[in-house]
Amino acid sequence: MAEKFMEITLTPAVQKEQRENYGRSLHVERGRPIDPLTERESQFISQRNSFYMATVNQDSWPYIQHKGGEVGFLKILSPNQIAFADRKGNRQLLSVGNLRENDKVALFLIDYPTRTRLKILGNARIHAKEDSSGLSGTWTNEAEDRHVERLIVIDVVSYDWNCPQYISPRFTEDQIAPAVKALKLRIQQLEEELHAQQTTEQ
């Protein structure tokens, strides 16, 4: 676990609950540096085609939004910076409005087949889609995509990997396609053998 994550999330109220429920609380040193993403986190992020993003509005109500796109749409700009193109949605702009008031975000990324999940804490900034100055990588496609409304850049503060407990494996059509294809071929083979046998018996 990245140590900065626990420093942020282990508040006095959380420690109090730990003591009351388990007899003791976790301890963490304060003033820890920001945790850079390692190759493991970067690879996992680059392989995702969706994630959940939590923001908080001015009345302290949390809001969670699903973000999806092609594999790798959440880009790694540096060990402490990630970004994605925010595409046109239901026109409510709840997350965008929240970020104008409070730039803190929490991202939840999950890979269902391997039952792996990664949580990321950071501070988000909103850029016009034409304004990729100062950002690494190529954003030409995003700037020309009429469905993209803005770029959201997140300065990563820390992250944490969760255990696989209670995650039910789920698979996409593309992931199960090879297995289904093999089954269909086997069914076709058996049907042909059965037809040939029935023809011979006649």
From TrEMBL:
Protein name (record): Pyridoxamine 5'-phosphate oxidase family protein
Domain Pyridoxamine 5'-phosphate oxidase N-terminal per the UniProt entry, residue ranges: 38-132
Organism: Pelagicoccus albus
Pfam families assigned: PNPOx_N
